[in-house]
TrEMBL record:
Pfam families: DUF2092 (PF09865). It comes from the Bacteria. This is DUF2092 domain-containing protein.
Length: 249
């Protein structure tokens, strides 16, 4: 299951044009709350947060297996981005300083770099299009929005206000042809951060789902010295990120 669609649809795309905001299945309150959260994150010059993702795969046509992906991400707009994550037994680090993007495969003792001058939004789009590489939680902090978003939205429901751990959240549910998803957004009007996003693919056998819990939001964290620089250990081997077009040849 590709997580990017649900993450982008769940947050960033709330700010795009062409959003369906009326009709019998559309509750404007759900759209308004989701958009307010999206705008809030897009307006933050610095963001760091942790995340815990579970996602399903269907094996042998019937057995549903759930995998876990955990990590943390940080961005200082105009300066850089970094993310560290563990998926299964694989550790990955991604570092971007506004000029160079580095993917670090610590377990294998390898790293790869590409020149990518420009914004984080440009990097996010380039990696997905040219390398089929999704930056962890990249769409949540991407300011550019997504054309996929809420275009052709068929249902938007404000489920209600619920407890979420030690706080309260707005529970929202959305549907469009490509899939269904839900969101839980903090009711704190001064800090309307997303707390969880859940999605399902209704067209895949077994309806595989994913859940992304987002926590420890911080907009002024101390990131240390040179947080977006990478100095390869001498023992590390530099490898090449291969573009999708070359893999298809």
């Amino acid at each position: 299951m590709r997580l990017t669609f649900f993450l982008a649809a769940g947050l960033i795309a709330c700010g795009t044009t062409g959003v369906a905001q009326d009709g019998p299945g559309i509750d404007p309150k759900a759209i308004e709350i989701a958009k307010a959260s999206s705008d809030y994150l897009a307006g933050q010059p610095q963001i760091s947060f942790g995340w815990f993702v579970t996602y399903d795969t269907i094996e042998d046509g019937r057995e549903k297996l759930t995998s876990v992906w955990t990590g943390e991400s940080a961005i200082v707009r105009g300066a850089g981005y970094r993310s560290s994550s563990i998926q299964g037994r694989d550790a990955r680090d991604y570092v971007f300083d506004g000029t160079t993007f580095t993917a670090v495969f610590a377990g294998e003792g390898q790293f790869a770099q590409i020149e990518a001058p420009g914004s984080f939004e440009q990097l996010n789009a380039t990696l997905l299009q040219d390398y089929a590489l999704e930056l962890p939680m990249g769409d949540i902090i991407d300011q550019s929005g997504s054309a996929a978003g809420f275009v052709d939205l068929t249902d938007a429901v404000y489920v209600g206000e619920v407890f979420f751990g030690d706080q309260t959240a707005h529970h929202l549910a959305f549907r469009r042809y490509e899939g269904d998803w839900e969101m839980w957004i903090s009711t704190d009007p001064a800090n309307p951060v997303p707390l969880m996003i859940s999605g399902a693919d209704p067209y895949a056998h077994g309806w595989p789902k994913f859940n992304a819990v987002l926590f420890d939001w911080d907009f002024a964290a101390e990131l240390g010295d040179a947080p977006f620089q990478f100095a390869a250990p001498e023992s590390f081997e530099q490898i090449t990120l291969t573009p999708v077009a070359e893999l298809a040849q």
